[in-house]
Amino acid sequence: MRHLPLFPLDVVLFPGELLPLHIFEPRYRRMVARCLETDQRFGLIYHDSDRFGPFLVEEGRVGALAAIERHHGLKDGRSFILVKGMGRFAIHDGLESGEPYYEAVVAEYDDEPGPRKLTARRQASIDLFRAAVSALGSSSPTSPDFDANSEVSFRLAAFVQVDPEWRQDLLEMRKEEARLGRLDEIFEQVIGRRR
Fold first, then answer.
1. Where is average pLDDT lowest: 101-105, 140-144, 180-184?
2. Is 118 exposed, middle or buried (0-12, 13-18, 19+ CB in 10 A)?
3. Domain spans of the chain?
4. Domain 2-108 CATH class label
């Protein structure tokens, strides 16, 4: 368990993914300043106030641990930051600390143990991803490298631009094989549409 400042946004950050953010609201300027003074980490949690109303710190909600990789402060107090997803967390309890931003006690949210090695399964999803990119005519000399010997579902998912709620569902899945299956459905749809 750890104490973590929270930044609710209508985006989903995956572990390993980079995300640029413009920090302009005073309470989040304060949060970023505190993060820069300490361990440079905060919790990015999906919330769309137009769909769901005011943000509530609810037990069990899952978000991404975001580490500030780069910070560029502006004279008027705003800043541009680049964050990287470092893992997942689940809210255990809200905190009242007197800070203007949200805070919570969180626990790590890891995958459940898998029953077998997934190298071949991962490679199948990587191959489908590449076929989908090719079907879109988006082949690039800077195509990313993927290592099928380690977790790849979140790296693949970072390239899928779909509804944030779909991305949130994927973030909450605790089995890599299930996430790969969900991604394969998207890749297969792309390939099927281009045939």
1. 140-144
2. buried
3. 2-108, 119-193
4. mainly beta
Compute the distance between CA of residue 56 and CA of residue 76 in angstroms, rounded to an integer: 30
Supply 190's token pair. Answer: 């792309």
- Our measurement of the distance from residue 60's CA atom to the centroid of its chain's CA atoms, rounded to an integer in Å, reads 16
| DSSP letters spanning 130-178 | HHHHHHTT---TTPPP--TTS--HHHHHTT----HHHHHHHHH---HHH
* Residues facing 105 on adjacent strands: 3, 93
Helix (H, G, I), strand (E, B) or coil at 69: strand
* pTM, to two decimals: 0.92
Q: What is the pLDDT of residues 168-188, one digit of tens each?
A: 999 999 999 999 999 999 999
Residue with tokens 């990587």: 126
Q: 């413009």: which residue's tokens?
A: 22
Of 121, 118, 12, 28, the C-alpha closest to 81 is 28
Nearest partner of 157 among 10, 43, 14, 11, judged by Cα: 14
CB 103 within 8 A of CB 89: no
Radius of gyration of the chain (CA): 18
